[in-house]
Automatic annotation (TrEMBL):
Pathway assigned in UniProt: Nitrogen metabolism; urea cycle; L-ornithine and urea from L-arginine: step 1/1
Lineage, top ranks: Eukaryota, Metazoa, Ecdysozoa, Arthropoda, Crustacea
Cofactor binding description: Binds 2 manganese ions per subunit.
Family: Belongs to the arginase family.
InterPro entries: Arginase, Ureohydrolase, Ureohydrolase_dom_sf
EC top class named in words: hydrolase
Extent of Basic and acidic residues compositional bias: 347-358
UniProt cross-references to PANTHER family, sorted A to Z: ARGINASE
Binding site for Mn(2+) 1: 149, 151, 153, 259, 261
EC number assigned by the record: 3.5.3.1
Name listed for the protein in its UniProt record: Arginase
Length: 358
């Protein structure tokens, strides 16, 4: 590995300006994939976020930004399991397995060339590839994950019958195939790489009952919206990073997985599973500003932007929220800069039957 996070951190020292106030090399990869759930359109997320001009904005901040292009599945329709096969319980397991294997390889090789690798999703199943790829480049106990999401994404086929991988990446990353009680050959490459003590959640508000049990049993730290109300986002991120060994004086290699549905649907309306009562954009930015302060961030994904779920204006607004999160990550707002292009009119939010069922 040419550059490691600890090297960046070591070079800077803890008392010096954080890396996000300095120039870093950023590789940006698109994960154009939406087969981890059943709504199409999340594969258009990378294009929508690129269109906001975020790569140019990151370059203008003084960083070296390299567009690593979009990864998409080459095969037109890879063979999936037939209904009579028990493995068909997990939808598109072949696609999910093959896509993420390639993604994992792309992320680990990109980490050899860049200080930070950003992956634009894609549905949340792509975190299998990004986190596994990151895990390949560091000692097992160094990998730490901050999961910012309305959902816990820790189901297994035994705790949820949705069949959607995007609700299950974490159980796979922590326990592999064993958690699934299925032999999915296209996922055999993905061995467990994440320890429950190295995972912290922020933003939860739609946790399934059996996910709650899993979180408790594994002793995973979770800051749900209620904790954010009580403690404030600043304190919550500080505690989360501390617990991950990714804050002051620490040497974890941090991955942040940011599901845009962690944000309130008024900020990020175009996403597959919106849940009201979420983070303000400002709170999301605060999370990322604090994260980057310590130089432990090595990879990040921003997922579940689905430009097809809403008007073009809402889609642009959602993609722009992703842009603001990335600018916060790389130092845009430190020192009180007024962000350019932040004045998009708020699109009209009509009651959405998914979030306003009655
Ligand atoms: N990445 C997401 N948006 N996940 C939503 C998951 C919803 C639900 N808990 C499930 O397991 O299917
Ligand atoms: Mn979510
Ligand atoms: Mn998610």
């Amino acid at each position: 590995m040419l550059l490691s996070c600890s090297r960046v951190a070591g070079r800077l020292g803890r008392s010096q300006p954080p890396p996000n106030a300095r120039s870093v090399s950023i590789g940006v990869l698109g994960a154009a994939f939406d087969k981890g759930q059943t709504r199409s359109g999340a594969s258009l997320g990378p294009g929508a976020v690129r269109q906001t001009g975020v790569l140019k904005d990151l370059t203008a901040l003084g960083h070296t930004v390299r567009d690593l292009g979009d990864l998409r599945l080459q095969e037109a329709v890879p063979a999936e399991y037939r209904a009579e096969d028990g493995r068909a319980r997990m939808k598109n397991a072949t696609s999910v397995g093959r896509f993420n294997q390639q993604l994992s390889e792309r992320v680990s090789s990109a980490l050899g060339q860049h200080d930070v690798v950003v992956t634009l999703g894609g549905d949340h199943s792509i975190a299998i590839g990004t986190i596994h790829g990151h895990g390949q480049t560091v000692r097992h106990d160094k990998l730490a994950v901050l999961w910012v999401d309305a959902h816990a994404d820790i189901n297994t086929p035994l705790t949820s019958d949705s069949g959607n991988f995007h609700g299950k990446p974490l159980s796979f990353l922590m326990r592999g195939m064993e958690a699934f009680h299925l032999d999915l050959p296209d996922l055999r490459w993905c061995k467990p790489c994440l320890h429950p003590s190295k995972l912290v959640y922020i933003g939860l508000r739609a946790v399934d009952p059996l996910e709650r049990v899993a979180i408790q049993e594994f002793g995973i730290r979770a800051y749900a919206m209620r904790e954010i109300d009580r403690l404030g986002i600043d304190k919550v991120v500080e505690m989360a990073l501390d617990q991950l060994g990714a804050g002051v004086g620490a040497d974890s290699s941090l991955h942040v997985s940011f599901d845009v549905d962690a944000l309130d649907p008024s900020e990020a309306p175009c996403t597959g599973t919106p849940v009201r009562g979420g983070l303000s954009l400002r709170e999301g930015q605060t999370v990322m500003e604090e994260v980057c302060k310590w130089g432990t961030l090595r990879s990040m994904d921003v997922v579940e932007v689905n430009p097809q779920l809403g008007t073009p204006q809402q889609a642009q607004y959602t993609a722009d929220a992703a842009r603001h999160l990335l600018l916060a990550t790389f130092g845009r707002y430190r020192g009180g800069n007024a962000p350019e292009g932040s004045q998009l009119p708020r699109p009209e939010i009509k009651p959405d039957p998914r979030t306003h069922p009655h």
